[in-house]
Amino acid sequence: xxxxxxxxxxxxxxxxxxxxxxxxxxxxxxxxxxxxxxxxxxxxxxxxxxxxxxxxxxxxxxxxxxxxxxxxxxxxxxxxxxxxxxxxxxxxxxxxxxxxxxxxxxxxxxxxxxxxxxxxxxxxxxxxxxxxxxxxxxxxxxxxxxxxxxxx
Length: 152
What we know:
Elements: H1 2-28, E1 38-45, E2 56-59, E3 62-73, E4 78-86, E5 96-101, E6 108-113, E7 126-127, E8 129-131, H2 136-150
Parallel strand pairs: 1-7, 2-6, 5-8
Antiparallel strand pairs: 1-4, 2-3, 3-4, 5-6
């Protein structure tokens, strides 16, 4: 009878650990904050390489929203993007939105660089000051080809 009790206790501990890990994963992944109110802003980028729906939007390194829609504008051939920001995060209307990299091997994220305007973006407004992602390969190729020309 003691073997059954031990097995039940170990099974319960494993189940409790699995539930705790699932809850932690949902909170870290942002699934636990789904009830928060958000508002959309749009932007158009020359290059959106490395950014997908669900990518973090950060301000000063703090996650303030996510990318909710990405599409190609057939007229301008630019990547039209919609981001959802928390209602409590007000962004000055002269702010810039750029694609940043987490590091050499890290992924990309969307960063908002705040301006100094006393007026804020309203829901549905478009951020016009954008900077797309920079391809590391093309940057290295420019460096390599530029260093050969400088020596001559």
